[in-house]
Design goal:
By secondary structure, the chain is mainly alpha-helical. The protein has one domain. Helix content is 83%, strand content 0%. The protein is built from one helix and no strands. The termini are far apart.
């Protein structure tokens, strides 16, 4: 291998390693934001389930459920 090629490859690797720290920081930030979003989503899902549980009995009383949509 030509010494110039070796030096060029070494410079590239050093630059990549220096940049990796910044990439890792960005990934950590993204993971933290995703975890916060997931927590919010869990709360929203729980609220939706609660609301649905309250609405379903009301709908059952309002909407007829007999054959062909009519009670006999």
């Amino acid at each position: 291998m030509d010494p110039m090629e070796y030096d060029e490859m070494l410079r590239y690797l050093v630059a990549a390693i220096r940049n990796q720290g910044s990439i890792n920081d960005d990934l950590r930030t993204c993971i933290q934001e995703q975890r916060a979003f997931n927590r919010q989503q869990l709360e929203i899902n729980a609220d939706v389930k609660t609301t649905l549980a309250r609405i379903e009995p009301l709908l059952a009383r309002i909407i007829p459920t007999g054959e062909n949509g009519r009670e006999a």
